[in-house]
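FAQ: What does a ligand-bound record look like?

Like this one, built around phosphoric acid mono(formamide)ester:
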Amino acid sequence: MKVFQHVSDIGDLKTALAEAFEIKENRFKYSELGKNKTALLIFFNNSLRTRLSTQKAAMNLGMNVIVLDVNQGAWKLETERGVIMDGDKSEHLLEAIPVMGSYCDIIGVRSFATFESRKDDYEEKILNQFIKYSGRPVFFMESATVHPLQSFADLITIEEYKRTPRPKVVLTWAPHPKALPQAVPNSFTQWMNAADVDFVITHPEDYELDPAFAGNARVEYDQMKAFEGADFIYAKNWSCPGVTRPEDYGKVLSKDMSWTVDARHMAVTNNAFFMHCLPVRRNMIVSDDVIEAPTSLVIPEAANREISATVVLKRMLQAL
Ligand code: CP
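The answer part, i.e. the structure of the complex:
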């Protein structure tokens, strides 16, 4: 695997899940694979889970790890070509990327949507430059539009906890005070569309996800109706994807607190498990009682980030 961005990059999901459970059984099984290989993890944005779980995954495989927080100690980077660099940015990404590539064997990058331009965000302007100029395999640690390590961990978690062969999985929008990117819901939708589940998305009008990710997924605008009989509730906020009105891209169009997942919502489900990628704002996205219930999977879901990252790095090492 040279790039890990979309569900298609991991290939057959049953095979990927089997690999994940093999690693979960013995996470050090491939500890010789990464000997004398270096993973460089580059963060343009904050992280707790991705930073720790991906470092742990690399260590499971015997790799050396370098972590770079671009905004803390590195030179400020210019990303646009043709700019006269007479401001506060000392280095251009076009030099910085191949230099970073020269110090490692595999690169992971986190770079969120900026909301300055829907076109630039959805064209993955930053990550594509890493793919083009680093000379190394690149895996996405949450980009402008996708978060595949999270979605793979989510799929592993659903597979572990499902009580029926084809569970009903509901992705629900929930309110948040700030504008958040669409990376998590985009990826989750892409992965659920590829998985053997009964998948439903629910959100207020004008929050439709980009068709490149939504595909033929069923959308139910009545949240309570969507929750009926659900086996898994996956809550997430996202800002307006700008599908129907591009000028609204990245805006917060609703803070409707009736969408907060609480006991009233969970009561109409099939005793559903609750999932969220974390970090989560309690009593905005989900009530205290729902996230603290025995059916809340947020901690095992986060723990599975180590497993998804180990599978991805293992595949990349095997392809070097
Ligand atoms: N879920 C997730 O990616 O968490 P972090 O932002 O803390 O890495």
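Follow-up question: can I read anything off the structure? Yes, for example: Residues 47-50, 142, 150, 277-279 surround phosphoric acid mono(formamide)ester (CB under 6 Å).
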